[in-house]
């Protein structure tokens, strides 16, 4: 099986890599190796990634055509500050240009034309207000495909890719093969060798362990990535109604005074519910909102970002440890009233029932988050809650509920150059699995960057 390019993973990074190559050089022979199924055969027996997950292997939510993107909320974020760290690799200007390029491709495949987000006047208004209380507003616009829209867009992309490339479903990439420090192909789990002059590894978060293991095997350098640890805050919806109406999905950053740590507000769900996520036997918190069902509450995550330095090498294990501690204390997810946290008391069912905010995650166990979260994280989060209260009075009410813990792990970063080529010639690492992105838009952009470098090497001038 001889190809010019072998792509591991058919998530947004792999798909956009293939689309770019096909667009500019339809004569290239391309294989996409995907351990999951075609999109129409992806069915989660549990329908949510919550407790009760049947642990399918591979997981239908995360693996298959469209990757984790196919069943996502489908929010395409038009901002260089959101969804990854490509700005650190290619610079902000180039990233902005590529986001615009990829956005057009999503539109061609049926993404909705409507852009949510603020008008320049509203952005200016909230940027000013935020600055006065030491918060930084991250302006962004969102093209919201929704789950159905996302599936339809990914299906349309499949039509184009499948006409020009071979998509090998139910096929696991086992090893990246290298000769003379140059990639030569992929050995699959079912014993086939897929020869290719270029290999693009885009295995997503679900495949990050595989990529980390390949990096060790091939002696590629890796770097620690960030680990984001914090809580989900639930408040009455009217408290942040004005900012939500103006900005659609506010993203705010605060640098704590005590530790100078970055705390970010993200995943804002007006009228939404608090949910759980189950990964590697750990239950963590998340949030969701629905188009046609609204609760009287709003929830959002407040996360402290840390990037550990040498010699510590286990940021994921650190985050898991804290999540496990919360699970141990609450036999699952903990919930605490802000008043109780501040007074050093655990919440009880009775105390929670006195809160004006009725929890949307009734399975959360009332407890004491200060036993699970490090002082550093807790104090930075409380500082941000106070800053938010000045922007939107009521956020720091005694009744606010805090759920814990919410943790976001990102894959270890494989060292790449500005074209996403690794230390091995013609081997590229793209998307969430490479630890350089964490959202649909930047993952897609990373696929285009790798494709363009391959096109450059192939002498294509049309890039
Ligand atoms: C529930 C959920 C909701 C989300 N909502 C949003 C949102 O609204 N907006 C947003 O911007 N982002 C969202 N995200 C994040 C977004 O989905 C990811 O950032 C994006 O999909 C990453 O793209 P990727 O191509 O790097 O990897 P993935 O989409 O994870 O795709 C990787 C693919 O590689 C395959 N693979 C892995 N290892 C191997 C192997 N060894 N051999 C063969 N195949 C392999 C996997 O099966 C998978 O299909 C969401 C994620 C989840 C889980």
Concise description?
With 463 residues, the chain is of the alpha+beta class. It contains 12 helices and 22 strands. The chain binds flavin-adenine dinucleotide (FAD).
The level 1 CATH classification of the largest domain is Alpha Beta
Mean pLDDT: 93
N-C termini distance: 28 Å
Q: Can you tell me the residue ranges where pLDDT is under 50 for at least 5 consecutive residues?
A: none
- CATH names the topology of the largest domain as FAD/NAD(P)-binding domain
Strand content: 25-35%
Structure description:
- The protein starts with a strand and ends in a 6-residue tail after the last helix.
- By secondary structure, it is of the alpha+beta class.
- The protein folds into two domains: 243 residues, 3-Layer(bba) Sandwich (FAD/NAD(P)-binding domain); 184 residues, no CATH class.
- A hairpin with a 2-residue loop joins strand 15 and strand 16.
- The protein is built from twelve helices and 22 strands.
- The strands form five sheets. Strands 5-13-14-17-12-20-18-19 form an eight-stranded mixed beta sheet. Strands 1, 2, 7, 8, 9, 10 and 22 form a seven-stranded mixed beta sheet that branches.
- Helix 1 packs across helix 5, helix 1 runs parallel beside helix 12 and helix 3 crosses helix 12.
- The site of flavin-adenine dinucleotide has 41 residues, from helix 1, strand 3 and helix 12.
């Amino acid at each position: 099986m001889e190809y010019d390019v072998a792509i591991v993973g058919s998530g947004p990074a792999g798909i956009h890599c293939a689309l770019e190559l096909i667009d500019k050089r339809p004569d290239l022979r391309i294989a996409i190796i995907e351990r999951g199924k075609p999109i129409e055969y992806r069915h989660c027996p549990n329908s949510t990634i919550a407790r009760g997950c049947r642990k399918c292997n591979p997981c239908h939510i995360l693996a298959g055509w469209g990757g984790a993107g196919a069943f996502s909320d489908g929010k395409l974020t038009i901002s260089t500050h959101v969804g990854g760290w490509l700005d650190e690799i290619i610079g902000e200007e180039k990233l902005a240009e590529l986001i615009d390029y990829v956005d057009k491709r999503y539109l061609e495949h049926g993404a909705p034309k409507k852009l949510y987000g603020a008008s320049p006047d509203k952005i200016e208004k909230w940027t000013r207000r935020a600055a006065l209380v030491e918060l930084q507003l991250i302006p962004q616009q969102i093209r919201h495909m929704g789950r159905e829209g996302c599936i339809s867009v990914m299906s349309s992309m499949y039509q184009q890719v499948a006409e020009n490339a071979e998509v090998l479903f139910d096929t696991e990439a086992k090893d990246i093969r290298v000769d003379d420090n140059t990639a030569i192909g992929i050995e699959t789990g079912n014993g086939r060798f897929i020869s290719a002059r270029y290999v693009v590894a885009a295995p997503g978060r679900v495949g990050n362990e595989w990529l980390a293991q390949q990096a060790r095997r091939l002696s590629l350098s890796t770097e620690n990535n960030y680990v984001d640890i914090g809580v989900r805050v639930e408040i009455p919806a009217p408290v942040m109604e004005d900012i939500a109406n103006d900005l659609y999905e506010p993203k705010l950053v605060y640098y704590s005074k005590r530790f100078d740590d970055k705390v970010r507000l993200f995943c804002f769900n007006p009228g939404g519910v608090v949910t759980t996520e189950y990964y590697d036997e750990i239950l963590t918190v998340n949030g969701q909102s629905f188009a046609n069902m609204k609760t009287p509450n709003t929830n959002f995550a407040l996360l402290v970002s840390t990037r550990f330095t040498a010699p510590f090498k286990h940021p994921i294990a650190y985050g898991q440890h804290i999540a496990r501690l919360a699970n141990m204390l609450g036999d699952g997810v903990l919930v605490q009233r802000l008043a109780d946290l501040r007074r050093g008391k655990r919440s009880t069912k009775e105390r929670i029932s006195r809160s004006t905010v009725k929890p949307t995650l009734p399975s959360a166990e009332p407890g004491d988050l200060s036993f699970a979260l490090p002082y550093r994280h807790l104090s930075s989060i409380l500082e941000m809650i106070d800053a938010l209260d000045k922007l939107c009075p009521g956020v720091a009410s005694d009744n606010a509920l805090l759920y814990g813990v919410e943790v976001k792990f990102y894959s270890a970063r494989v060292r790449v150059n500005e074209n996403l080529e690794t230390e091995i010639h013609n081997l590229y690492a793209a998307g969430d699995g490479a630890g350089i992105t964490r959202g649909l838009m930047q993952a897609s952009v990373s696929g285009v960057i790798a494709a363009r470098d391959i096109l450059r090497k192939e002498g294509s001038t049309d890039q």
